[in-house]
């Protein structure tokens, strides 16, 4: 296999490695969109007034050494368009076009479907920035504030990635869709974001860590399926986005590590499970936040049985997670799969053609990945001599989409009555009292090396810098 690595042009108004200068019409269109993006960033991006932030900026698309770290004013961050290395020998790995060369242009018969996939992915990127807009004002440390802003600028770049595809390959309709990505806003009554999880609040740092662990992990799996796409520019775009997405999940994983660690310390110091009075977040409250964010993120996978997913796969638009490692024919027309179902008041499964079960296949990969975090956090509790354990609730708990939508199911997976749900909802999901307590802990700590009392300090700093490094400078 041969590959070529296009050089990133960092002197251009829009940094890119797609030779934007050779297409003046496209370049002008994106340069007209750029001021609108910067206006959106000013209105809906991070609300904290900073001088500069210690950020990483992409400077290459290779597997090693792809990022540069330095203090950068956020409104001068070099957002741009970066695709991973091009493989001229790449073939479509699945569906009815399996074995054919990948497409460099949009096939006419798949134009509407590809545009829709790109718009939905693109809509999630600015949404999370909007959800996290005010979190900087209550950062538990400069280290955490820097990580928040790194996530934000990279979500902004992921928006650019999708906007480039819309402008470059979908003509006037694509340009109009790109404009709408800035017109919708998270939680808006009149023009909300497309997917429900991206209209939820992220009002505190526990929610932020849960979002970056659970919801950004959904993003990892969605990008992973699009990376398999027969439309090569989309595949290469998503492959590079996955490099940046890994940091977002790191923030969530280690953030919850540190919350659980501090809670365990306080439990031992006070010989009590009730650490709220000591300025901590009790384990049962952490469990409620896990229950909420996990189940909201499960809804993002859609219906267990999906003709859309089947059609996308058959057409070669969207594959499975790690498609080429699968030990089957990658066509699936003769295969069957089991999907979750509720029948006669019982949780069961039903057999459907494998093509219809692709959403559940992807969701199962996600659930297995999420379980790794629970093992991490429970090892922390074990290390501190605490018997209690955190867990993922049953896949049917608190669901609004799919086979379990509208069903009342306990975290243990038991079908229950509406009355029993109402009696126990406050034990299973965050209450207003819980949310008020967590928000009450959210006091900013802006002195280098200092940390809020409800969370443990990080183990390591960023890019070999010490934890007490001055990651953010203020005006």
UniProtKB/TrEMBL annotation:
InterPro entries: Aromatic_CoA_ox/epox, Benzoyl_CoA_Oase_BoxB, Ferritin-like_SF, RNR-like. GO terms for molecular function: oxidoreductase activity. Transmembrane segments: none annotated. The keyword Disulfide bond does not apply. Its EC number is 1.14.13.208. SUPFAM superfamilies: Ferritin-like. Keywords: Oxidoreductase. This is Benzoyl-CoA 2,3-epoxidase subunit BoxB. It comes from Actinomycetospora lemnae.
């Amino acid at each position: 296999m041969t590959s070529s690595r296009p050089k990133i042009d960092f002197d251009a108004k829009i940094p890119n490695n797609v030779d934007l200068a050779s297409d003046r019409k496209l370049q002008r269109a994106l340069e007209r969109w750029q001021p609108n993006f910067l206006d959106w960033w000013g209105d809906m991006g991070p609300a904290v007034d900073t001088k500069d932030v210690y950020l990483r900026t992409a400077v290459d698309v290779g597997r090693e050494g792809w990022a540069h770290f330095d203090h950068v004013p956020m409104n001068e961050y070099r957002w741009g368009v970066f695709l991973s290395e091009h493989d001229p020998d790449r073939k479509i790995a699945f569906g009815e076009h399996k074995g054919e060369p990948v497409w460099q242009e949009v096939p006419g018969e798949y134009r509407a479907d590809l545009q829709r996939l790109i718009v939905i992915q693109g809509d999630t990127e600015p949404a999370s920035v909007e959800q996290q807009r005010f979190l900087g004002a209550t950062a538990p440390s400069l280290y955490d504030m820097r990580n928040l802003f790194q996530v934000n600028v990279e979500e902004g770049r992921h928006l650019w990635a999708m906007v480039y595809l819309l402008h470059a390959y979908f003509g006037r309709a694509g340009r109009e869709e790109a404009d709408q990505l800035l017109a919708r806003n998270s939680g808006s009554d009149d023009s909300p974001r497309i997917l429900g999880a991206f209209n939820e609040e992220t009002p505190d740092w526990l929610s932020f860590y849960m979002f970056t662990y659970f919801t950004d992990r959904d993003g990892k799996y969605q990008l992973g399926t699009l990376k398999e796409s027969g439309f090569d520019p989309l595949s290469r775009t998503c492959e590079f986005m996955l490099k940046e997405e890994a940091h977002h999940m790191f923030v969530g994983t280690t953030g919850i590590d540190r919350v659980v660690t501090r809670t365990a310390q306080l439990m031992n110091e006070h010989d009590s499970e009730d650490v709220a009075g000591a300025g901590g977040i009790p384990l049962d409250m952490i469990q409620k936040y896990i229950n909420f964010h996990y189940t909201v993120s499960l809804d993002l996978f859609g219906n267990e049985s999906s003709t859309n997913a089947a059609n996308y796969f058959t057409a070669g638009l969207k594959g499975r997670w790690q498609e080429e490692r699968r030990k089957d024919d990658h066509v699936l027309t003769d295969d069957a799969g089991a999907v979750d179902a509720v029948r006669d008041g019982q949780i069961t499964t039903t057999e459907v053609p494998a093509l219809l079960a692709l959403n559940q296949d992807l969701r199962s990969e996600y659930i297995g990945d999420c379980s790794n975090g629970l093992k991490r956090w429970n090892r922390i509790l074990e290390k501190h001599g605490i018997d209690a354990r955190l867990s993922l609730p049953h896949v049917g708990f608190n669901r609004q989409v799919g086979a379990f939508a509208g069903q009342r199911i306990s975290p243990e997976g038991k079908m229950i009555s509406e009355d029993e749900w109402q009696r126990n909802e406050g034990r299973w999901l965050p209450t207003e009292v819980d949310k008020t307590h967590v928000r009450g802990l959210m006091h900013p700590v802006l002195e280098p090396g200092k940390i809020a009392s409800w969370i443990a300090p990080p183990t390591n700093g960023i890019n070999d810098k010490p934890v007490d490094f001055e990651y953010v400078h203020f005006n």
